[in-house]
Each structure stands twice: as C-alpha cells, then as structure tokens.
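ugh ok fine here u go
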Amino acid sequence: MHTIVSALVAELDALVEAMITGVPSEIALSVAHSNWSYPGVTKFDLTSFIAETQAVLREDIPDELGQHEAALEDFIPRIAFLRAHTVPQCGEALRKLSQR
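structure:
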C-alpha cells in the first residue's frame, strides 16, 4: 500500500474513533438540532461511509497513484482538521441539546 494511502486510512481510523467516542447520539443531526440545514445523517451513517471508503482505499487503489497522489495527500490534513475541530463541536452541541 502506498504510504499516502496508508496515512489516509490511518487518519480515517482516527476520525471514526473520534466520532464513536465524541458524538453521543445516534439521532440524525437534522432531527437532533430540529434544523433543516443540518444533514439528515447519523453517526452510524457517517462511520459506515468511512469504512466503505477505507475498503476502497485498501483494496482498489494501485501502488502507483500517478496524477492522484497530490489530491489524496491533500485529504489527510483536511480529515485531521475535521477530526480535531468539527467532530468535538458536533459532539458538544448534541450533549447540550440532550440536557434541555
């Protein structure tokens, strides 16, 4: 497996772990927030999509990335930011909503 793909899969693993531990609810975000502008997805929906993406990365991506190398590498810091900043914000918001 290419080192960039390996790093991407590892960052996705960390994202799933952050979501499992940091998002306290299985309720769809739009329902939890009672807000049409939030996506109607659950934590399970998102982690399942990530797992499917990881399977494609592990099984279907060739060792030579060619013209896709830079694009794949660019996803690593974006996912890291999402894990470090967005997931905790979402988890905190859902915790506050559940205390109402």
